[in-house]
Amino acid sequence: MSRHMNKQKFLAEYVYEVEKDFDIDGVPASWAAPTSDGKPAHRFWDDEDDKVELRFFDDQKADGVKFFAPSHDGRFIAGSNGSSVGVIDLETKEKCMQFNGLVSTCVKLMFSPVLLESGGYTLLDVIDVEGLLQKSLDPVVAELSNSFGASSTSSLLETVREGYSDVLKKLRAGIESRDLSHVKGRTNGFNSSPFSMDGRLFLYTIQNESTQSGPRPAADLPKIIVYDVVNKCQKYVLSGHEDAIMWTAFSPDSQYIATAAWDGTFRIFSVSTGECKHVIGPTGGQCWSGAWSPDSRHVLLCGMAREDSSSETFVAVYSAETAQQVNRLEDEQLKRWVRFAAWSGRGEVAVVGEENHVWIWEPFEDKHISSFKLKVEDWLMESFAAVSEVQWADEGRLLIARAGDGTIEIWDRVANTKWRLQRPEGSGTERSVGVVRFVEQDRTLRSFSRDGFMRCYRI
User: Fold this and answer.
1) Cα–Cα dist 398/235, whole Å
2) Are 218 and 207 in contact (CB under 8 A)?
3) Which of 80, 135, 229, 323 is deepest in the core (most CB within 10 A)?
4) Does the pLDDT value for residue 433 go beyond 80?
5) Rounded CA gap, 350 and 356, in Å?
6) Which tens digits make up the pLDDT trace of 274-315?
């Protein structure tokens, strides 16, 4: 009898379990000390220090928020249900604006780091449809009633009301979205970094379908657009890849753009000229993801290499200036896709493999610092359970990893202590965690869930 697995079934049946915990020199991480008010390091959801309902939309349902984006200064959170975007001021917990005029369904959401010349934010005025509708129709209703009587015109007026309401809603949507820039393309996944550090440049791809089913003319191959956010125009079109582009990222100093594609190559472009400085590969297999070093001098690249008659996964660090390989991560458990990587300010790299494994590697000394692995015995659940996000916080001291079920692991790299914020067994998709952010000012971890709540945990 065949079995199937989807997200809802996975969340209903999955039991979170760790096979290998973070460690230092073979000593497993211990639980961190309880908070001042007695909260343990291992908690389950609904045992948070603070829980705030975020009403992005007036008619918001429990599972209505699909995508989240915190602003870079931590002041705002944006949420989308696919057709609208609402923005909430996290200080007041009140909605401050809403965009309804999206030209297509929202599938990803993010804030640009760039601020307006005034240094502030734009708050849009919106039309009160119902109020304007009533004010507009009142004199019409009065005149018709005097001439023909209210009962003889009520059904006709209802038709007018519905049509006029639709027109006003479209007008409101257009006004609310008048300052939104639209580009015909999409951003990449795998921890891509589409914005330059100052937020003035933005990366997106066009024609980014795979060519594995058949070749296409060069003009129709995948391309990367470097978009000038401030002047609202294309700056460069980056060409050269011959198959789907999976990862794109600006270097932290905004001097380079690195890319990875299924054509088996990585490319490094100059931001100032748009010129391709280096092509790394072909590797003999698909290329997937990467991460820049904080000083922009090196880039970590992940993909598949073919050596002799066999293929193997590789993770390697290259010089951005010379494109020469510096070191390569070697581990017998490094198999299949490497989807995410994050480089800390301490010079260590977190690498996430598809087989629910996380490695911490110091590439210049080629030293294995630590590793972590989930225990997933049902192969149908593996891809759903896999770690879907890693980030460093507190100047590289804390590693935050979010598993596929929404459980959050936090590891203190220096003290070798840990916290776990675990999803209760059986809770469904409406509790899925969309975004996790660590706020260093008050050492609080914020999680934003599809049920419309922000949950805060003191670390």
Assistant:
1) 37
2) no
3) 80
4) no
5) 13
6) 999 999 999 988 999 999 999 999 999 998 887 665 668 889
Mean pLDDT of the chain: 83
Q: Which among 134, 128, 84, 126 is positioned nearest to 109, based on CA atoms? A: 84
**379 — phi, psi (to 5°)?**
-65, -25
Dist. CA 220–CA 225, nearest whole Å: 14
Residue given tokens 């220096």 in the structure block: 414
Residue type, 292: W
Q: With H, G, I as helix, E, B as strand and everything else as coil, classify residue 398.
A: strand
Type of residue found at 285? G
- The rounded distance, in Å, linking the Cα atoms of 185 and 288 is 19
Token pair of 458 as six digits = 């003191």
Q: How is residue 103 annotated by DSSP?
A: S
Angle at 40 between CA 34 and CA 41, to 5 degrees: 90
Question: Tens of pLDDT along 317-348?
Answer: 999 999 999 999 988 777 777 888 999 999 99
- ω into residue 194 within 30 of 0, thus cis? no
Q: pLDDT digits over 9-35, tens only?
A: 888 888 999 999 999 999 999 999 998
Whole-number pLDDT of residue 166: 67
